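Input structure tokens:
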């Protein structure tokens, strides 16, 4: 190449170098650059207080406001001052290569676009496209829609200081949150392809000191968070909310007040539903590999008002949670929650706190723990236990009582204790409930009683709330039936024990099985069938047999509770019966014999009809006595 030609090229390059800052800054100072940046404000807006450029591709800015909106995401960025280097030549190939970018005084906003809005936008765009095609003629329907190619955005050595605020909204399965404080970001290396293409983060290291919500409280210290993470390449559109966490690898350290972050979700399994949150002190070190919390991780959290959800319950009270991962254990992951004083409600109705208690213990042992989802494996363990609880309103129990029994709790003091353990998919446990001076109605009779219920659950399936019953019982003491005519003796007692049976824990409960019955005498049974306005008769006194024992089989068929048979053969009294309890009435038949006197009755619409003396064979034909031999 001739020296003159070389000199001409050099001269052109020199002119361009010196002309660039003049032209570039002229575009900036006249506002033309800002106009060009906002040519599609529905997709991107950008403004700044001051900006300049001296070298091609290198820009400095003060007071930057940047907002980007796509059909699925909204992103906002505020920067007090910053500088960035962009490869101008790469723009030709629709690549944005950003290197050595730094921002100072940063606020970040991100929100997932509401699905309804996105679908409406898609529908509107489709309608406009259909209208355009129809006006262009029939040939337009076969013309393929041209879409612009995607852009490849690469960030290298991107950093930030004095990060003041980060807000996240509308993520699937994650509560909205806002972090305010002071943070830094170092050496961010990121790659993303627009229009739903892959994204990855090969390195990101950051730290933030997050202010507690109430900075006036001396007991609350800012939450210090440090993280160094990588995000494996994936297609973001194919994953929702927490599902994206399966691509995270790295470590996170956190220490200080936790309230500003909302609830921690430990077991995302929809059945176990173990979450902890509240205002308290957190100390955590987490090691992640593809979204799994791995060996060496640990966490502790202490709160005076710890909100804990587990299974179908929610508690609030003073508590602590400890969690760790140790590969040397059979179940490396161990989680323990202990709440000293608590109030309990159900997750779907958290405002109704029906139980006050002490010493709630929740624990879990797992093979593996993931941040994004959790399935209970065969060897995993999950349990909860309540040392002592008091039901603040006995009316809460009525939702569990079958309407067919006609039982409704009115008042009294009821305490409970016990818990449940899930080993893999099998549940077992024990609950004890005790009532003192309880007033209830049963088949239109007012009853006063003390009771104890022991429920031992075996071979349970928590998903469908079915359990076996073993060594369970209902004990009644100091029972009195109260009528206008008279009140029965208060010393009556009775006990119903489960030979074998099953429980469906629902609203209402269903209890099926074979039961053994023992009671002081049959006075309450006589009072139950007698007209409540009539006083005790000489016949009642004669039939009132003492120390009665018997058996019965109960099962629920649709909305009817069937007791068939009920059989008593004790102390000279024989009773054979079949009774059906429906929501509207009681129906059945009964044969009774005491010494040499026997008779049978029929119960129709809750009214007793005398059918005649004797009649044992007639009644026995309609009662399944053989079931007691099985």
């Amino acid at each position: 190449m001739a020296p003159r030609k070389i000199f001409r090229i050099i001269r052109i390059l020199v002119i361009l170098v010196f002309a660039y800052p003049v032209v570039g800054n002229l575009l900036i100072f006249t506002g033309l650059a800002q106009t060009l940046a906002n040519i599609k404000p529905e997709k991107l807006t950008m403004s700044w207080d001051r900006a300049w450029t001296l070298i091609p591709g290198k820009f400095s800015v003060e007071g930057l406001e940047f907002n980007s909106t796509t059909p699925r995401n909204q992103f906002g960025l505020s920067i007090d001052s910053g500088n960035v280097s962009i490869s101008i030549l790469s723009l030709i190939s629709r690549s944005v290569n950003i290197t050595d970018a730094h921002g100072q005084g940063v606020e970040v906003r991100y929100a997932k676009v509401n699905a309804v809005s996105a679908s409406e936008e898609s529908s509107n765009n489709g309608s406009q496209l259909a209208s355009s095609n129809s006006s262009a003629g029939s040939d337009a329907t076969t013309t393929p829609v041209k879409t612009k190619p995607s852009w490849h955005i690469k960030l290298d050595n991107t950093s930030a200081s004095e990060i003041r605020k980060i807000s996240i909204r509308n993520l699937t399965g994650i509560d909205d949150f806002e972090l305010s404080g002071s943070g830094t970001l170092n050496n961010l290396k990121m790659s993303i392809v627009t229009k739903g293409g892959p994204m990855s983060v090969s390195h990101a290291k950051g730290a933030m000191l997050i202010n507690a919500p109430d900075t006036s409280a001396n007991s609350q210290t800012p939450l210090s968070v440090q993280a160094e993470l990588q995000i494996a390449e994936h297609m973001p559109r194919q994953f929702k909310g927490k599902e994206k966490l399966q691509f995270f690898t790295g470590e996170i350290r956190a220490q200080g007040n936790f309230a500003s972050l909302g609830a921690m979700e430990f077991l995302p399994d929809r059945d176990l539903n173990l979450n902890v949150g509240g205002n308290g002190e957190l100390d955590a070190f987490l090691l992640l590999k593809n979204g799994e919390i791995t060996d060496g991780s640990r966490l502790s959290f202490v709160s005076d008002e710890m909100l804990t959800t587990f299974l179908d319950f929610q508690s609030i009270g003073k508590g602590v949670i400890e969690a760790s991962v140790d590969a040397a254990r059979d179940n490396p992951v161990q989680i323990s929650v202990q709440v000293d004083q608590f109030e309990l409600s159900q997750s779907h109705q958290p405002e109704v706190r029906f139980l006050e208690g002490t010493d709630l213990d929740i624990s879990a042992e797992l093979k593996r723990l993931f941040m994004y989802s959790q399935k209970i494996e065969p060897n995993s363990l999950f349990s909860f236990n309540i040392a002592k609880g008091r039901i603040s309103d006995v009316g809460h129990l009525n939702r569990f009582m079958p309407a067919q029994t006609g039982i409704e709790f009115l008042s009294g003091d009821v305490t409970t204790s016990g818990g449940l353990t899930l080993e893999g998919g099998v549940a077992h446990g024990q609950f004890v409930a005790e009532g003192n001076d309880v007033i209830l109605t049963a088949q239109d009779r007012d009853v006063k009683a003390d009771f104890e219920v022991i429920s031992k659950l075996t071979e349970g399936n928590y998903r469908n709330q079915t359990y076996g019953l073993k060594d369970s019982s209902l004990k009644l003491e100091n029972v009195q039936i109260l009528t206008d005519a008279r009140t029965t003796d208060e010393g009556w007692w009775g006990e119903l024990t489960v030979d074998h049976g099953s429980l469906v824990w629902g609203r209402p409960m269903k209890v099926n099985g074979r039961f053994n019955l023992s009671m002081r005498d049959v006075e309450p049974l006589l009072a139950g069938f007698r007209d409540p306005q009539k006083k005790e008769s000489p016949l009642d006194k004669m039939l009132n047999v003492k120390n009665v024992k018997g058996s019965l089989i109960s099962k629920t068929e649709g909305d009817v509770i069937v007791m068939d048979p009920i059989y008593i053969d004790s102390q000279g009294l024989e009773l054979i019966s079949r009774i059906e309890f429906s929501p509207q009435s009681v129906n059945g038949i009964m044969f009774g014999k005491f010494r040499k006197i026997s008779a049978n009755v029929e119960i129709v619409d809750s009214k007793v009809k005398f059918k005649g003396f004797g009649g044992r064979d007639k009644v026995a034909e309609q009662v399944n006595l053989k079931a007691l031999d099985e």
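The two ends are 110 Å apart (CA to CA). The CA atoms of residues 130 and 162 lie 49 Å apart.
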